[in-house]
Structures are given as C-alpha cells and as structure tokens.
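In this supplementary section we document a worked example of the pipeline. Step one takes a protein sequence of length 171 as its only input; no multiple sequence alignment statistics are reported here. Step two produces a three-dimensional model, which step three serialises into structure tokens for compact storage. The input and output of this example are shown verbatim.
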Amino acid sequence: MRPRDRGGNRAARHRARWATGGPALALAVGALLAGCDSYSSPTDTASKAESAVGSIASQASEAVESATAEAGRRLDDIQGGVDAKGDVKVTTPDIGSDGRARAEVTAHNTDDSERSFAVQVNFTDAGGELVDTVIVTVDHVQPGDSATATARSTHDLSGEIRARVAQAVRY
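The serialised model returned by step three reads:
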C-alpha cells in the first residue's frame, strides 16, 4: 500500500538518482576502439589508450560534479524545507552482489508534526574522492521517531567505499 499524496514537492518525495560515469566511459571506450586499426603501431595504440583513460577520468569527474550540482538544486527547490543534516545519519556502505554500494540512512524527526526528509548521500573512495552521489527520501516520519531508507549507488563501485550525508532537508 502506498502512502497517500499529501501535497508539497512531489519530486522530493521520490528517490532520485543521477548517472555519474557510464556515458563518459562508453564514449571514451568507443573513441579508443575507433582509434585501433590494423595500421596502428603498438606505441600509437598505447598512446591512444592512455589518452582515453585520461578522458574517462576527466569526464567521470565532470559527471560527478554535475550530478552533485543537480542534487543541490533539487534540495534547494523543496518548498518550506529546513536544514536537517544534524538529524540524519548514514551507515558504512557495503557492496551488494550487483556491484552497487548500499548504505542505510536514518532520519530522526525532531519536529512536532509528521515530516519527510530528502537526503543527499555522497559515496567516496578510500582517498576521499567523490565517486557517486544520490538523493534518497525518508517519508512520513512521525514526531520524535526515526525512520530509515537505503541509499544505493547509481553504478558499480569497488574497493573501500565510504558514505556521508552531504545535505539533508526536512519538509
């Protein structure tokens, strides 16, 4: 059974995710493969591969930055939202069998009426580099109660992944 719509910003009540690297990877791999022909020397091929890898890293970084900016805009658009970062916690993520990182987000409602939360979760690697960002909603939290939702990365992540609450809005 779905909770009934109580008005407000409908987009903020639904989970939103942004891809942060897949198209860049496909573009760079395509460029690399297009550059490999029967007339290329191994040195030329290696040089093209190196260039493609640099391009992938640059484009992936730009995609993450773009997704982060878009997440911020979405949170800023919530009507009547209040900064609630201090009322939200996120667990250490684990990597599922599908390669996606998952972290539990817990929001505590300190208000005197039912509220929902929109939370931006940033996934970083062991070096602190941002590798993905998602927005998750925690809906219909009763006064004084806590509720949880799962933040799931938009693409496969590996290695030591950390999660942190970048922003949280209670509405």
